[in-house]
Amino acid sequence: MAMAAVETGRYHRSYASELRLWNTTPQRVRMIVLAVVLIVLPLVLDNYWMALVNTALIAAIGAIGLNVLVGFTGQISLGQGGFLAVGAFTSAILTDRAGVPAPLSIMGAVLLTAAVGMIFGLPALRLKGLYLAIATLASQTVIVFVVRRWDWLTEGEGFVDVMRLEVFGFSLSRANFDQQWYIILAVITILAALTATNLFRTGVGRSFMAIRDQDIAASAIGVNLTRAKITAFGVSNGFVGLAGALMAHYTEIISWERFTLDVSILYLAMIIVGGLGSVAGAIYGAIFITFLPVFSRMLADELGGVAPVLSDQLPAFEHAIFGLTIIIFLIFEPKGLNRIWQRIKEYFRFWPFRY
Amino acid sequence: MTQFLVLLIYGLSEGAILALAALGFVLIYKATGVINFAQGEFLLIGAYTFYTAFVIFQLPILIALLVGVVVAVVVGVLVERLILRPMVGQSHISIIMVTIGLAAVLSSIVQMFFGTQPRAMPNLFPTGSVEILNGSIPANRLWTLLVAAVVLTLLTVFFQKSKHGIAMRSVADDEQAAMTVGISVRRIFAMSWGLAAVSALIAGVLLADLTTVEMGIVNFGLLVFPVVILGGLDSVPGTIVGGLTIGLVTQFTAGYLDPGLAGVAPYIVLVLVLLVRPYGIFGEKRIERV
């Protein structure tokens, strides 16, 4: 079993083996373990925890999207919340009012969000660092303002009621709502993660990374900066639009309050905590940040006897823990959970030696 | 005409406060290269410290102000020492995120102590109104404008003339060169954060006097970004012009067009400026090499 935990090295004897996504036995064993866990999860967890798992899966898709832009291409974005809103409202309105089947409307949301992302990505052609961060902050503010004030979107109600998801004539049941959603979301998340992983094995993905590492050098070796940056914004926001659309169908009610700047910050925290520039990291981070408030609440209950202010001011306490988590990760483990996991694997690989 | 005049004074007074808040941001960015997303929280802490000293402990106004300054300097220096110094050399994204985390921690600490209920503070300035050209202008707005102008002038003079101000500018210009002529870069870093916190304190107290002491002060801090982009990140006069412009834009939009639009108008101005001049109106264009 120890053999299954880590590999001792990677050797390739053919191109086919080099192109494989998982090429060592330990990796395959881990994937099987993961698959078993994913299958067992809905059988052991109750509805409360399943709802959290589903939320985490949706967040994972959004975080993968944001990581394509921030972690892999190096273009900081504070507009995540706004783009989630575009995806959510597009899909909700298409199904509810135009009667488009859900799978098609979600696809429509992906395409429209990608297009909107490309438009708001245009400033990135000339700006970087702080200036880009502030430009995306502006796009966040503008999108949320539009969503808030454009009465047509919500028919003047301020929110959109989304009907129960129906896929290919099969409507989700009320009793097994979270379990059925879990199957859908798990499949989509796995597909999204595979797509993103494979993206960075192609030329387009590599050009994104070249821009992150040194954009001027990248253009010197023939990367078309304009095209690559706009593509990165499009691809990234395609994932974000998917997450937004799924969020709309899952929560069945959407309003502008779900897409504020705080949401953008939440997603940035996910990829920082998980690990910038790593698909697996985005997923770890999404899970961590989704479950953080739950654990803060437990902690507040534990400490409530000593310091009642913690449970009285629970939202503030959760927010403080959230901020503290970001700071601690950035100072002590800037490469995030993904790096911690790699170090654990390395420890066992070299065991019983230190290095 | 009357409405124009009232909006003008309102815009200028809010713009002056914005300029003070933005000046702290520029100070930190220039000296240490850190993009501080927690500037709004410094305003918040300043306002609440002053409130605690002045209203809860009933201290005389000058002593309360002194307490505020001491707390602001301590918080600023501690933040620099404990959080930003370990981050030296990290990427833009990491530094932005660490200040976002800091903002979350600072605002929730304030919320834990004081709750979300807005608190009223006795007026610091005379409340009557002044008749100018048939329009009645609240006197406290004029006083705010006056105080902000004095503080901004003092800070400008400090940068131009004083030994420490010149040292700060030299560090901003070139850290290594500053070190070789014997300037302690560490002390300058600490000083920038302390000074930024003090200018935020004054901005926070002035804002609290115009409105109330409440968590919403943080949102005012976000307006710092349009201001610094408009004014360019390198210049103090630019920041003042940027602050006044954004203050006027907000007030005129609220007065003549739509109060709801006022929150977005600064960002629309921001996008327009970035489209035409990507490095702000007063900012210098940086030449990059591989």
UniProtKB/TrEMBL annotation, chain B:
It holds the Pfam family BPD_transp_2. It is a multi-pass membrane protein. The chain crosses the membrane at residues 7-29, 49-79, 91-114, 142-159, 188-207, 213-233, 240-257, 263-282. One of its GO terms (biological process) is amino acid transport. It is found in: Cell membrane. The keyword Ribonucleoprotein does not apply. Belongs to the binding-protein-dependent transport system permease family. LivHM subfamily. Keywords: Amino-acid transport, Cell membrane, Membrane, Transmembrane, Transmembrane helix, Transport. InterPro entries: ABC_transp_permease, BCAA_transport_permease. GO terms for cellular component: plasma membrane. GO terms for molecular function: transmembrane transporter activity. This is Branched-chain amino acid transport system permease protein.
